[in-house]
Design goal:
- The protein has 189 residues and is mostly helical.
- It has 2 domains: 18-144, Winged helix-like DNA-binding domain superfamily/Winged helix DNA-binding domain (Arc Repressor Mutant, subunit A), CATH 1.10.10.10; 146-189.
- It is built from 8 helices and 2 strands, in the order H-H-H-H-H-H-E-E-H-H.
- Helix 4 packs across helix 6 (88-100).
- It starts with a helix and ends with a helix.
């Protein structure tokens, strides 16, 4: 064992690298987004759980409310697009759960290639009851915040812009992924 390790000094690898230090604010923001995402999914699942016996996750609930909001039949690809998701198999699984729970139903479709879904009568009842819980619990908490309506409008606009930045960054990363991988392989040789 080296003298440095025996003395209890931290390994150089454990020290924050200069690049990471420069990124501290963005990393803290990204951590906050993950925490918000997790809290929001938990809230969605718990809120719908208050009014329905169906075991739904946050993403399942998002699909349900999107179909309710649209008030017209939607297919998997439209659900994915509006939720900014590309994990079609998970969306299909959510739709199957919603169908099985009777919260949505298949709609008559003009296209035989794509099945569409609409909210069922039970789905209307459950989402209406969930809206009551949302108002009693969540909205009452929001009302305690000063200027919440204006702040939410501003935050929503900022989130839309930031979503666009991350979407573009993702496309750029994919575009250059092979270049970076190949460069890393060359560096190792």
């Amino acid at each position: 064992m080296s003298a440095r390790k025996k003395s209890g000094e931290r390994n150089d690898r454990a020290k924050p690298r200069p690049v990471i230090r420069k990124q501290a604010h963005i990393l803290e923001f990204e951590l906050a987004v993950w925490q918000l995402f997790s809290a929001f999914n938990r809230w969605q699942a718990d809120c719908i759980g208050c009014v329905s016996a169906a075991q739904l996750s946050g993403p399942d609930t998002a699909a349900l409310f999107l179909i309710r909001l649209k008030e017209s039949p939607m297919g998997i690809s439209e659900i994915a697009r509006l939720l900014n998701r590309d994990d079609y198999s998970n969306i299909q699984y959510s739709v199957k759960k919603l169908l099985k729970a009777g919260l949505i139903e298949k709609a008559a479709s003009a296209s035989k290639k794509q099945t569409t879904y609409r909210i069922s009568e039970l789905g209307h009842e459950v989402t209406d009851r969930s809206a009551v819980i949302r108002e009693k619990v969540l909205l009452s908490m929001y009302e305690r915040l000063a200027n919440v309506d204006q702040e939410l409008v501003h935050i929503t606009k900022m989130l839309d812009l930031i979503t666009g930045v991350y979407d573009q960054a993702s496309r750029t990363a994919i575009t250059y992924a092979d270049v970076h991988r190949n460069a890393a392989l060359v560096d190792k040789q």
